[in-house]
Amino acid sequence: MKQMIIHGGKPLKGDVWIGGAKNSTVALIPASILSRTPVTLEGVPRIADVDNLMDLLSEMDVKCDFQETTLKINPEDIHMSPLPAGKIKSLRASYYFMGALLGRFGKAVVGFPGGDDIGPRPIDQHIKGFEALGATVKNQNDQIIITAPTEGLKGAVIDLAMPSVGATINIMLAAVTAKGQTIINNAAKEPEIIDLATFLNNMGAVVRGTGTETIRIEGVARLESKAPHTIIPDRIEAGTYIALAATVGNGIRIHNIIEEHLDSYLAKVEEMGVVTKVDEDSLYVYPAGDLKMVQVRTDPYPGFATDLQQPMTPLLLSAKSGEGIISDTIYPKRVGHIPELQKMGADIQAEDNFILIHPTAELKGAHVSAGEIRAGACLMIAGLMAKGETVISNAGNILRGYDRVEEKIKKLGGDISVIDAN
Ligand code: EPU
């Protein structure tokens, strides 16, 4: 088990570079098996989720070569193989192999997905989409078996009950090689979905309308990668460093951002009184003065991202007065960080589906546990703010999603280390 050890209370200063978006990367890697030729991804974050996806690819004899931030994936010798539980459970996004295998081979046998403990995460909309394309879906021994009819998948109109990121992506992966047109209504609009469409279209797919609520896909017989694809910057990592900079920063410049992807988040941070300045694709966060509490409600993109409610919480705790309220409409039970913050002296409570936050003059170091990626990011920032030593157990969850986080924070002057502990 990994432990993150932080000695807090030191101001951080300098420059930090944001990596490629985790939630794009974890879709692009499974999507690579749709290509008949080798794929090159640039700007790939060094995160544990990527290692786990490469292990899954190697089970199908897909070769990977990962140097610096360039990942080469060669699917030329791929064979269709069941992907049983085990590794599949190590990350939620392994369920993208369902759509990708279905699109490539007309069959997918994939263990039930795992992922963060953030409350119930059904996949009924993914299955509804596969079935609409003509596939049969069976659950057997903790595995999902999806089979296309002998004549292949056929395009369909699919109305999602909610704009699910995962279902939109999985349906896109299956539909790009289906016969005829697929229309996804009430599709998710996240930038990572546009990134995936760019990647697929550059391989010969015909996907239009991503970023709006209606996506139209014309099926094609074959996809071939011809040029490297550069992954968009991780807006959630950027938002996390913005919260860090506004709490313990003494002037931090965050490079490789797309400001528009952060609009809702920056609006809230600025409403609190944090001052930032954008210069092309970087953003400077000035040392914060007295901050005001705000209310936050998470929503699908372009709303305030659920993945940023926890990283922003330490910033709310640092406000001088008032009561902050967070309501997470996507994952109302994403509250695992609260008892851990209470151990650090935070005045924060979960009531019904609201999180209530009061100004906390000082956090103190404590032994806490990172139940999931974003809870871990929240505790890491709290640890950097706190007096004394904070030990975060289950820190592997932070490394699942934050690119070279120890190195980046050390470079800013933070006293942080990640160790192997029993
Ligand atoms: N939902 C259903 N049925 C479905 C699919 C979703 O009821 O078939 C519900 C979910 O329970 C949830 C809502 O719809 O309440 C939205 O879920 P969505 O499918 O959009 O989420 P996801 O695809 O499972 C991705 C990200 C999450 C992020 C959410 C919301 C990846 C790999 N994961 O999850 O990221 O929180 O979208 O934006 O892209 C993270 O990075 O920390 C993380 C958890």
Automatic annotation (TrEMBL):
The keyword DNA damage does not apply. Its EC number is 2.5.1.7. The active site is at residue 116. Pfam families: EPSP_synthase. It is an enzyme of class 2 (transferase). It comes from the Bacteria. Gene3D superfamilies: Enolpyruvate transferase domain. Residues 7-408 form the Enolpyruvate transferase domain. Pathway: Cell wall biogenesis; peptidoglycan biosynthesis. Keywords: Cell cycle, Cell division, Cell shape, Cell wall biogenesis/degradation, Cytoplasm, Peptidoglycan synthesis, Transferase. One of its GO terms (molecular function) is UDP-N-acetylglucosamine 1-carboxyvinyltransferase activity. It is found in: Cytoplasm. Its main location: cytoplasm. GO terms for biological process: cell division; cell wall organization; peptidoglycan biosynthetic process; regulation of cell shape; UDP-N-acetylgalactosamine biosynthetic process. GO terms for cellular component: cytoplasm. Coiled coil: none annotated. UDP-N-acetyl-alpha-D-glucosamine binds at residues 92, 121-125, 307, 330. NCBIfam families: murA, PRK09369.1, PRK12830.1. Cell wall formation. Adds enolpyruvyl to UDP-N-acetylglucosamine. Belongs to the EPSP synthase family. MurA subfamily. PANTHER family: UDP-N-ACETYLGLUCOSAMINE 1-CARBOXYVINYLTRANSFERASE, UDP-N-ACETYLGLUCOSAMINE 1-CARBOXYVINYLTRANSFERASE 2. This is UDP-N-acetylglucosamine 1-carboxyvinyltransferase. It comes from Lactobacillus rodentium. The gene is murA.
